[in-house]
Write a structure and sequence with these properties.
alpha/beta, nine-stranded mixed beta sheet, 35 helices
């Protein structure tokens, strides 16, 4: 009877699965037939949209973007390829519905519709068909009288024409219908140079120029307003949910180093590399796998990265071990044959030492604390801490932050681990890579990682001041060209893929306790399991069969939690069936989960998701439900009284996930939506909680946030500004205002500062604080800066032509400009264009910019000084490193920030500080202007202290160029 009963259940289950599958297939078929077919036209633009032969489907940046957009639409997409002109004609005829990518211009906007939101940003890129060793980046003379190919009617065609006119380039234009035709012409030597979008990547050819970054859009037929409305709404929702989506997609398909796998060296750097002798680099030893001397050679992560730098740059290195306990600075200054030292921590002491040159970081890592597993270590205060010699920065950090602890400096990391194992030290601080390798030794089975130290490490190269600075510059450029995959591969080879090879004795010694214990336990467990499993097997099997169908439909196979749609339904039932209770939707987002997959592989990433799902299952057991929304996103629905306080819950979650066996710190962003209206769809509640979590991504100090409507409104307002910025620039809405600079004694005009104001035709004046931070984040600030610089030059030229006696006007330089190729020639070209001199245009750089990668900023400003430009340090006194920088900073004028130096309290003390700064600046040969002057009393004090020039509301607010001319310059017309 029992066997027949089981067979009936099996037959019934199979029948249910068959019927359910049949109905699901019918439903899916019905959904597909009801979907609107939307035809997407595209041209060959590299990795934007292309046919992936391996996967037998369309792929690329544009496909990834559209796939995300149509999640909210009842669309079925079909792709139609062709040349640019063919696609335009198909769009006019209605044979395609959307063409992408497309840039806006006046002619196209008169004929077609454009999406409200840009799809991304591209720029015009110029490739040399046959690379030459004597050719360098921005060698524009090479373009003269060349045959240059470009796509007919493309935005890049008109962009290059304007570029050629502005730079006086004569050339023969050869048009093509497609990139394929153009590349074929390159191979047949029919053209010398070709112009394309930066969406197309050709690493086998040499880039000679890139310019005119601009957004691109979806372009539609005028009769497709309904499709455009649906498209705009879907893209708008995507921007609100995930504002960084297009940035991540761009990195995935096109990448940061899209132009070249090699650094773009200057001629001087190239010649140095060709003639450079072998460079001797000293490296730390006894820190495997970070850096070590084994088998009569240096080996480890640092050494392998150095070999990669040599391969890319062409420099030749000889690596030698540094004696234990040596001081890096002494090694360099004593001239004992070492040119550079590698693997040093990029500490503040090195950066501020004028006798040393310091490179950018070539490797990042963290420090961790290791202790006996049974010991609970909550703080490093009042402990005995063992650290290896050769890390003075680590010693200094611990002495400052844990003054009550005792430091024990030992020979190497193994000696430190032995000290903790033997009870001679409570804890040791180790490099994360060294820790990951050493703790594999069974000898240290009793030890474990107990705490991450907030002392992040960055490895750099250090040289003395006599070393040719070109070496550091070449190293910095080369490090940026090491791909993430290659860097991770090197790290993995020495960590994950390099298991510790323990001897038999080490294994027996390390596992001695476990061998005895588990031998006894194994016998007992086997007997118990045998009897229990025999009785439970039948019940478990029947239960599994009963739940199989339900689990296949509702449960995520990876995590065992409700899938997204099942969670929405069950959460809605839970909330509505308990109207007297208050609930919260809490979203958990694992930060940088993609990095974990890249570094450790998909299997480790999946194991982490399962591990975290188990914790959420424990958290909500008997209190609510948990779900998995895909990727790295989890969600729970619980009563608002479930946790005593959110801080305790957040700490418990982070403590748990960081016990996962992986050599990287895991950060969780938590977003909370408090359910007020149960009629709101649960899917929208989750989106709002996710929005709260996104608002704190990357914030090391805050790990949870509550949703409020201001978050959504701010995202919408910011997106509106970003949508309008390009049109605003083209329509002249960004206007130059000028704030006068005057003599303090008689208020006579001596100059002015050019500032930008956004005069919106509908909203009026938009405060700079609303748009400047956004532009600095997305890079548009560089285009806005150039607009202000050129408009200022136009003003000065206009006044000179009208016979008005002008005064110098200063313009501000945002930090991002210093990283643009060819920046050092921008102002020189502007002055030539408008027939001005460096005495007409002063350059202002904020004090904070000097402190960020000062070697790059100093080098650029020094070149401008050599060309007779006057450099002003703006906001002096508002930062924390002013006096440290003054010795080497390329500066001619200091602008003292009065609001930081003169508060309401301690007035006498502030006056003493101000007097000392003025005296010191004069002794160093700097001119001085006080900014932020607001009263006559301050003017009198400045005169008394020796400062004769000022700027501020006492003299005038920033005013329009017309008002500045009428009020200050008309009286100064030359006779």
């Amino acid at each position: 009877m029992k066997k027949k009963h089981v067979k009936k259940h099996i037959l019934a289950s199979v029948l249910c699965v068959f019927l359910l599958s049949f109905f699901m297939l019918e439903t899916i078929g019905a959904d597909n037939t009801n979907k609107k077919i939307v035809r997407i036209g595209f041209i060959e633009y590299g990795d934007f949209i292309y046919w992936n032969e391996d996967r037998k489907e369309y792929d690329g940046y544009g496909v990834g973007y559209l796939n995300e957009v149509v999640n909210d639409l009842e669309w079925q997409i079909e792709y139609v390829g062709g040349s640019w002109e063919e696609c335009l004609q198909m769009l006019r005829d209605g044979r395609i519905d959307i063409l992408c990518p497309a840039q806006k211009n006046e002619e196209r906007e008169g004929e077609f519709l454009f999406s409200s939101y840009p799809v991304g940003i591209t720029e015009t890129t110029v490739y040399v068909a046959k690379s030459e060793e004597s050719l360098f980046y921005e060698d524009y003379d090479y373009l003269q009288n060349k045959r240059i190919g470009m796509i007919c009617a493309s935005a890049q065609q008109s962009s290059f024409r304007e570029f050629a006119r502005n730079n006086g380039i004569q050339y023969t234009e050869i048009p093509f219908d497609s990139s394929a035709e153009m590349l074929k012409a390159v191979e047949e030597n029919k053209i010398d140079i070709f112009v394309t979008s930066s969406l197309s990547v050709f690493p086998e050819y040499q880039v000679i120029a890139s310019f005119n970054a601009a957004p691109f859009y979806f372009m539609l037929n005028q009769d497709h307003a309904e499709i455009l409305e649906e498209l705009n709404e879907a893209v708008g929702n995507l921007k609100i949910k995930d504002n960084d989506f297009d940035t991540r997609l761009y990195d995935e398909y096109i990448g940061v180093n899209q132009y070249s796998a090699k650094p773009l060296f200057t001629r001087e750097e190239y010649e140095f590399i060709q003639n450079s002798p072998e460079i001797t680099i000293g490296m730390l030893q006894n820190f495997f796998p970070y850096s070590d001397y084994k088998d009569e050679q240096m080996q480890g992560i640092c050494e392998e990265l150095l070999m990669e730098i040599s391969r890319i740059s062409g420099l030749s290195f000889r690596i030698v071990p540094i004696e234990e306990g040596c001081k890096p600075k002494d090694e360099l200054l004593e001239n004992n044959g070492i040119d550079l030292i590698g693997g040093m921590m990029r500490s503040k002491d090195f950066l501020e030492d004028h006798e040393l040159q310091v490179s950018d970081a070539f490797l990042e890592f963290e420090f961790v604390a290791i202790a006996v597993k049974e010991n609970e270590i909550n703080s490093l205060e009042e402990l005995t801490i063992a650290i290896p010699q050769g890390f003075p920065y680590m010693q200094q950090y611990l002495e400052i932050n844990y003054p009550k602890s005792t430091l024990v400096i030992l020979e190497d990391n193994e000696a430190c681990l032995d000290a903790v194992e033997d009870g001679k030290a409570d804890v040791t601080i180790q490099n994360e890579y060294v820790c990951a390798y050493s703790l594999q030794n069974p000898k240290y089975n009793n030890l474990s990682l107990v705490k991450n130290i907030s002392m992040d490490g960055t490895a750099c190269f250090v040289a003395n001041d006599n070393m040719n600075p070109l070496v550091i510059s070449i190293l910095n450029k080369t490090v940026k060209c090491i791909s993430t995959s290659n860097r991770n591969k090197i790290i993995n080879e020495f960590t994950i893929a390099n298991s510790y090879k323990a001897s038999l004795w080490e294994m027996i010694y390390g596992y001695r306790k476990y061998l005895i214990f588990y031998g006894i336990v194994a016998g007992l467990v086997f007997i118990i399991i045998y009897y229990i499993s025999r009785e439970k097997t039948r019940a478990v099997q029947e239960k599994k069969e009963a739940e199989l169908i339900k689990n296949q439909i509702e449960i995520s196979g990876l995590t065992g939690l409700y899938n997204k749609h099942a969670f929405y339904q069950n959460a809605e039932n839970l909330i509505r069936s308990n109207p007297d209770k208050k609930y919260e939707i809490i979203v958990f987002d694992i930060e940088k989960f993609k990095i974990i997959n890249d570094l450790f592989g998909m299997e480790v990433g999946d194991n982490l998701l399962k591990y975290f799902a188990d914790k959420l299952r424990q958290v909500v057991e008997g209190k609510g439900i948990a779900g998995y929304r895909g990727a790295d996103n989890f969600v729970i629905c619980v009563e608002d009284t479930c946790f005593e306080d959110i801080e305790s819950m957040e700490k418990e979650i982070h403590d748990y996930v960081n016990e996962f066996q992986i050599d990287i710190k895991i950060q969780i962003c938590i977003g909370i939506y408090q359910v007020i209206n149960s009629d709101v769809p649960v899917s929208l509640m989750c989106d709002r909680a996710n929005m709260a979590a996104a608002s704190i991504k990357g914030n090391e100090l805050k790990h949870y946030a509550y949703y409020d409507d201001s978050m959504r409104q701010k995202l919408i307002n910011d997106q509106i500004i970003l949508n309008e910025m390009q049109d605003a620039l083209e329509q002249g809405q960004f206007q130059v205002y000028i704030q006068p600079k005057c003599r303090v004694d008689n208020e006579e005009l001596i100059g002015g500062e050019a500032l930008v104001r956004w005069i919106h035709p509908e909203k009026g004046v938009i405060a700079p604080g609303e748009f400047i931070p956004l532009f600095e984040k997305n890079g548009f600030i560089t285009k806005l800066d150039y607009h202000v610089w050129e408009e200022t030059c136009k003003l000065i030229r206009k006044w000179k032509d009208e016979g008005i006696k002008t005064v110098p006007l200063s313009v501000n330089i945002s930090r991002l400009n210093f990283y643009l190729p060819g920046f050092e020639t921008v102002f020189e070209k502007l002055l030539q264009k408008y027939n001005l001199t460096p005495d007409d245009l002063y350059l202002e750089v904020t004090e904070s910019a000097y402190t960020n990668e000062s070697n790059i900023i100093f080098n650029q400003l020094s070149q401008l000084q050599e060309k007779k430009f006057t450099i002003l340090m703006d906001d002096f006194g508002s930062g924390y490193s002013s006096l440290n920088m003054l010795q080497e900073a390329p500066v001619d004028v200091l602008k003292l920030d009065m609001k930081f130096l003169l508060g309401k309290d301690e007035k006498k003390r502030s006056e003493i500080i101000l007097e000392s700064v003025i005296k010191m600046a004069k002794q160093l040969g700097f001119r001085i202007i006080a900014e932020g002057v607001e009263s006559r009393e301050q003017c009198e004090m400045l005169l008394r202290l020796g400062c004769h020039f000022g700027q501020g509301y006492y003299f005038s607010r920033p005013i329009s160029a017309e008002e500045f001319e009428q009020k200050y310059l008309n009286e100064q017309k030359a006779s």
